[in-house]
Amino acid sequence: MVDIAIHRAAPPPPPATVLPLLTAAGPLAGVHALVVAKPGPVSLDLLCGLISRGCGAAAEAPPYGPTPVEPAEIVLVPQVDRIEVAVSAIQLARRCLLPCGRIVLQDTTANLAPAIAKLLRAAGFSFVRSRPVADVVVISADWPMFGHQLHETHHA
């Protein structure tokens, strides 16, 4: 009997453009994720980062337009550079997030975080948090199990 060992190379670390978002997303093993972004290198890097962290399924949807969406446990938005992108992503997240799901947005201007947090609270998300990381701000929030009126909202 011969033992054969197969060595797999560790995946490369995710680029700095998506690392804050992946870090804020927390554990991803087995999770179904939706990336709301225009197709391109940043969304591809994020999808690869999700897969390398054990994500069970990852899909991409554009920030605008009608999009058929499967249920997701987390929605990630890597490039919020205008408030309209946040509005569209939050609406999409409300349609597809499962109870107790979460949304994580990356404010690439570092100036929109207060307005994004206000939009999330108004949309019924709870436990809204924002954290500056390098030259971006990462905003995350939870989609409540039983409705937003039963959950306390934390101001960041």
CATH fold type: Rossmann fold
Strand content: 25-35%
DSSP strand count: 6
**Low-pLDDT segments:** 148-156
The spatial strand order of the largest sheet comes to 2-1-3-4-6-5
Helix/strand class = alpha/beta
The biggest beta sheet reads: 6 strands, mixed
CATH C-level:
Alpha Beta
Q: What is the CA-based Rg, rounded?
A: 16 Å
**Spatial gap, N to C terminus:** 60 Å
* Count of individual domains: 1
Helix content: 25-40%
Q: What integer is the average pLDDT?
A: 85
Fourth-tier CATH superfamily name: Vaccinia Virus protein VP39
Q: Shape from CA axes?
A: globular
Number of helices: 4
CATH architecture: 3-Layer(aba) Sandwich
Report the order of strands and helices: HEHEEHEHEE
Condensed summary:
With 156 residues, this protein is of the alpha/beta class. It has four helices and six strands, in the order H-E-H-E-E-H-E-H-E-E. The radius of gyration is 16 Å and the shape is globular.
How would you describe this structure to a colleague?
- The protein is α/β, with parallel strands linked by helices and 156 residues long.
- The protein has one domain (20-150): Vaccinia Virus protein VP39 (Rossmann fold), CATH 3.40.50.
- Helices cover 28% and strands 29% of the residues.
- It is built from four helices and six strands.
- It has helices at 19-25, 41-52, 83-96, 113-122, and strands at 32-36, 57-61, 72-80, 97-107, 126-133, 136-142.
- A six-stranded mixed sheet has the order 2-1-3-4-6-5, with helices on both faces.
- A hairpin with a 2-residue loop joins strand 5 (126-133) and strand 6.
- The radius of gyration is 16 Å and the shape is globular.
- Residues 148-156 have low confidence and may be disordered.
